[in-house]
Specification:
- This protein is an alpha/beta fold.
- The chain is 41% helix and 11% strand.
- It folds into three domains: 4-219, Rossmann fold (3-Layer(aba) Sandwich); 235-327 and 468-566; 329-464, 3-Layer(aba) Sandwich (Rossmann fold).
- Strand 11 (349-352), helix 14 (367-377) and strand 12 form a beta-alpha-beta unit.
């Protein structure tokens, strides 16, 4: 096995929000002399109508990632100038690479993965490996369903005459990046490296260590696949739990944000939400917004439970119910606006933000676009404003919303009676000063509006969790107990899934190859966005009680698990 000083060429397939910061970070390591003399990073991007422009953009020293990304364009410019970063449409430029990083999107289809784009790239990688004089490590930075490296990719390459351990080494190092913090996460976050061959994992760790100060955990591929999908799935579940609390508070006119603060303080996991706008929620109780978008959370619970559901016939109830709850959020926001408008919205509307995350151009699974689609379904006239999203954006086109997008805020607001703040871009912080008199109602799905400074005599304002009443002490106590109980319910599902995978796929593997729920839980809790997965073996003494406990779907599922244990 090589060491890092033998590394001459690293290729990265897919210069998106995962691949581009990885390529930039490794290219800077080349500049610093961390690898063999003359080492460089080769970026591969197919010459498609929507993304082909990225190659000349990178080669001119510019970032192909929109939005605000501190440090990314500077790293690209330095590396291109220094000759350690190149981009090409020709995938055969990756021949003779020592490390091949695949960073293309994976998705879900029904209750399983959609690997179409991934396997298209793997076809190219197989040809590259077959023509190479090197024996590369092929690492997926994409999120994969547990078992994929073993049961999908290894057989795929085997059918091409390429044997794991002889012609290539396979592994996964699933990304933990976040738009707006891409370079920060690459440089400082803990990271998982899971290879079929343990020595290959050590090599990748040494390579990545040249650009990262985080702890790099070398594990088997099954563990890496499980940890990555579980940590995103956990966040999806906890957003759904927070959404259930917020919707209950809305029905009762309770102040959800005050409840959230009380719970986070008492649980001991507070965050900066409420003190600074667009702070990433990292407390115990998360923050429901327009919905849950991006390339990870909406699909990773499906990926985590894929083989479990497929083979055992069981369904991960809390995981799947959380998806339902979070998918309802754009409709919930629309219904809130309709109720405040006398039962239906009749005039022109405006949607502020098309991306799923503030100060980003990423529209994948954007709840703002889902909200826009609901407006269209209801026959409303509207525009969608976003300063970062390109008019040729794929997801706008996919949803048939291209013609609704503009970067002209004045045009978007002109004549609008209802304004939805779907994405918390910084330019909307002072939106009150820019609203024309025709606006009757503002619907804040982002929590960026300071209600204390709002002039309600000029424009009505509603939003998720905007109740004003004091939360009764008995409900605060119940909500705390329900949080602990749903936490345990999720941990129980995760344990069941891990034990299924281990006995079904790994029972004959040596220790390195086994899957241990306790190890998965430990590593999930290293996630930089904050994860607090409970101990599934610490069974709660009883089910939380409250007159309205039947209104909480996740609690009911956890209660069923508890009854089965007693």
């Amino acid at each position: 096995m090589k060491n890092k000083k033998d590394i001459k060429k690293i290729s990265v397939f897919g210069p998106g929000v995962v691949g581009m910061p990885m390529a930039a970070g490794l290219a800077e390591s080349c500049l610093k002399g961390e690898f063999a003399p003359g080492a460089f990073v080769q970026v591969i991007q197919r010459d498609s109508r929507r993304s082909g422009w990225k190659v000349p953009e990178i080669n001119s020293g510019k970032s192909p990632i929109g939005g605000i990304e501190p440090g990314l364009e500077e790293a690209i410019a330095r590396s291109v100038t220094g000759g350690t970063l190149k981009a090409s449409h020709d995938y055969l430029e990756a021949i003779d690479s020592d490390l091949i990083i695949v960073a293309v999107q994976t998705d879900k289809k029904g209750l399983g993965p959609d690997y179409g784009p991934l396997m298209n790239v793997m076809e190219q990688v197989a040809e590259v490996v077959g023509k190479s004089a090197t024996t590369p490590v092929v690492i997926s930075e994409s999120t994969l369903a547990p078992s994929t490296i073993n049961t999908v990719l290894r057989p795929f390459f085997q059918e091409k005459g390429l044997k794991e351990g002889r012609d290539l080494f396979l592994g996964i190092s699933p990304n933990r990046v976040m738009p707006g913090l891409l370079m920060d996460r690459v440089r400082h976050s803990d990271k998982l490296i899971g290879c079929l061959n343990e020595e290959a994992g050590f090599l990748v760790r040494d390579i990545y260590q040249t650009m990262s100060s985080g702890d790099l955990h070398t594990v088997n591929s099954f563990t890496a696949e499980c940890v990555k999908t579980a940590e995103n799935c956990y966040r999806d579940v906890m957003i759904a739990f927070a959404a259930e609390l917020a919707r209950y508070c809305d029905r009762k006119n309770y102040n959800f944000l005050e409840l959230r603060k009380q719970l986070n303080d008492s649980i001991g996991h507070a965050d900066a939400v409420g003190e600074q706008r667009n702070a990433v929620p990292q407390g115990a109780i998360l923050l429901p917004t327009t919905g849950v978008g991006g390339h990870c959370l909406p699909k990773d619970g499906i990926l985590l439970s894929w083989r479990y559901t497929e083979s055992s016939g069981k369904k991960a109830g809390i995981i799947l119910k959380s998806r339902e709850i979070n998918d309802q959020s754009p409709q919930y926001l629309y219904d809130m606006a309709a109720a405040k408008s006398g039962g239906r919205i009749s005039g022109k509307a405006a949607v502020l933000g098309a991306s799923y995350l503030f100060n980003s151009d990423d529209t994948r699974n954007s709840p703002s676009l889902a909200l826009a689609a609901i407006l269209r379904e209801n026959g409303l006239e509207f525009l969608v404003h976003d300063p970062y999203v390109r008019p040729e954006d794929f997801y706008l086109e996919l949803l048939g919303l291209t013609d609704y997008l503009t970067d002209n805020l004045e045009e978007t607001l002109r004549g609008a009676e209802v304004v939805f703040i779907g994405t918390g871009h910084g330019i909307y912080y002072d939106i009150a000063d820019q609203l024309p008199d025709c606006v009757q109602l503002v619907v804040d799905g982002t929590h960026i509006i300071d209600r204390g400074d709002w002039d309600y005599s000029r424009h009505k304002l509603v939003g998720i969790g905007h109740g004003t009443g004091k939360v009764p002490d008995d409900f605060v106590q119940f909500a705390h107990q329900a949080y602990d109980f749903v936490q345990w319910g999720f941990a129980q599902e995760l344990k069941d899934i891990c034990e299924f995978y281990d006995r079904t796929y790994l029972k004959d593997e040596p220790n390195y190859g086994r899957l241990d729920y306790r190890k998965v839980r430990e590593l999930v809790n290293t996630c930089p966005a904050g994860r607090f997965v409970a101990d599934a073996d610490a069974i709660p003494a009883g089910i939380p009680q409250h007159p309205d406990s039947g209104e909480f779907e996740l609690l009911k599922i956890a209660a069923d698990y508890h009854s089965a244990q007693m």
